[in-house]
Amino acid sequence: MKKIAYALVIVATGVLGLASAATAADKYVMDADHTNVLFFVNHLGFSTVIGRFGDVQGSFVFDQEDVSKSSIAVTIKTASVDTDVAVLDDHLRGTDFFDAEKFPDITFTSSGINKTGEKTAEITGELDMHGVTKPVTLNVTFNRAGENPNTKKHVAGFSATANLVRSDFGIKAYVPYVGDDIKIVIEMEGLRVDAE
Predict the structure, then answer these.
(1) Distance CA 69, CA 22 (A)
(2) In Å, how far from its chain's centre is CA 193?
(3) In contact, 56 and 62? CB cutoff 8 Å
(4) DSSP secondary structure string, 12-51?
(5) What CATH code is carried by the domain that includes residue 47?
(6) What are the b/e assignments for 7-42, b being 16+ CB within 10 Å?
(7) pLDDT tens, residue by residue, 11-47
(8) Does 43 fall in a domain?
């Protein structure tokens, strides 16, 4: 009888272990010190202006076994735009472009994730910018996950790209002289939220 009970405990433990593994999805918060959102805009055909946002916050759920169960939500403060040119940054914060006072946030919320390769996926979602919400697709590469040897914290890192048309979001100033097609490049690290 004891052997049967012991066997049942082992089976139950194994089943519970499989169940927890099957539903294992870790939650992360973005590490602002190691996350960059960059944009690239053609300037009069002479060059490409490169800018970034200094205030990016968000969280994501990452399920390595089934990436379709993953999700992400991000908020970017438009006033944090930075091209390393103070006059241009003030212009971008103004009504010609981001209108940061009226529209302080850009948000992205995922609606679906489709795995495209061993370490790649497409994340579809809704981008809300300048009072307009449009679907946007991110092409994402999973870099790695593991312990940061310096902080001893568990980190997951990703690279992503996207393309959007700014006039679709009502930001039409100086088109076509200043590019309408915007390239986005994202480098992101997240810190796993461990249960206490």
Answers:
(1) 11
(2) 17
(3) no
(4) HHHHHHHHHHHT--EEEEE-GGG-EEEEEEEETTTEEEEE
(5) 2.40.128.110
(6) eeeeeeeeeeeeeeeeeeebebebbeeebebebebb
(7) 343 433 433 333 479 999 999 999 999 999 999 999 9
(8) yes
Distance CA 164, CA 126 (A): 12
- Average pLDDT over every residue of 57-74: 95
- Judge whether 11 and 161 are in contact, CB under 8 Å: no
The reply to whether 14 falls in a domain is no
Report the distance separating Cα 13 and Cα 11, nearest Å: 5
Q: Which domain holds residue 182?
A: 25-192
Contact 171, 98 (CB under 8 A): yes
Domain assignment present for 142: yes
Q: How many CB atoms lie within 10 A of CB 101?
A: 11
pLDDT tens for 115-146 read 999 999 999 999 999 999 999 999 999 999 99
The answer to the question of residue 11 being in a domain is no
Instruction: Extract the tokens encoding 78.
Output: 């438009």
